[in-house]
Amino acid sequence: MIVMSVVTALVLLALVTQAGVVAVQRAYPPQGKLIEVEGATLHVVDIGPRNAGLPIVMLHGASSNLEAMRRPLGDLLAKDHRVILIDRPGHGWSTRARREDSTPQIQARMIDEALQKLGVDRAVFVVHSWSGALGARIALDHASRVAGLVMLAPVTHPWRGGVGRYNEIIATPVIGPLLAYTVTLPLGYFVAEAGARSVFLPQIMPDGFVRDSATPLLLRPREFIANAYDLVTLKQAVTEQVARYGEIKAPVTIIAGEPDKTVKTDIHARPFAATVLNAKLIVLPDLGHMVQNAVPDLVKTEIEAMIRKIAPAQAAAD
Fold it and tell me: What's the pLDDT tens digit per position in 104-134?
């Protein structure tokens, strides 16, 4: 009887999850185009004027999608610049063929291929959190594509500890998918708001952020598993690439907060800025992890200052 009850409960939870997936995807449909690359299909939203100089490519962090970069920062930039927002492989409406394709190295290659298909030769990359490691990897492996790099609360270095026991369990064969396809989505509806609020501290999360950022898409089983793989493989990935950071030649601006408890500035932003030759570091004493939401005008100013410096240098090179 106990076994039958457990099986029945899991079946019911799986049905609830599938119904939830349908509802979430109807609520947050894709907003852009789908680009096929080796090992993935990438969802890309391309906004702003096409003839406005260097395009800006925006890459979101973990547990999110391109909408986390679009509002308010992406829309603000798109008034004067071409802005290309990309759902990382496995996130939002992007898919990837293998869950194991979770490292910055692999995702950098996929994004580089997508930009090539879009006809984007060079761009300024704006990256947040997890994508700090991704932006650094693009600058290392695909340097000709990177005119400049703006990093917001970036992950760049190995750290003590893990990434949360639940992520480690979800990335475990058999038991991980079992949980993802049964309890994660129903449970996630109750904790998503509180989890997002904690990431904003000490800032207050804007009203409607979870809805406006399409955060519920994360609760779909295939994306939740992909996100877990991204997180549990990240520490080893940055450990392997950290020795190469001195090779980065593109101009880099890093904006981080002193009280950020999600990605600690002393472990990541400061050592990275000290290693990269052409790096500018801005650390604010009261800024949390969600830099693009807390200080969008400052980020926009720094991006545009970088573009103004790059343009004469590029013209001289040409």
Answer: 999 999 999 999 999 999 999 999 999 999 9
181/17 Cα distance (integer angstroms)? 6
User: Pick from 40, 60, 186, 192: which is nearest to 132 by CA?
Assistant: 60
Q: How far is Cα 46 from Cα 123, in angstroms, rounded to an integer?
A: 13
Alpha-carbon distance of 203 to 261, in angstroms, equals: 12
Q: Model-level pTM?
A: 0.96
Tokens of 176: 């991980």
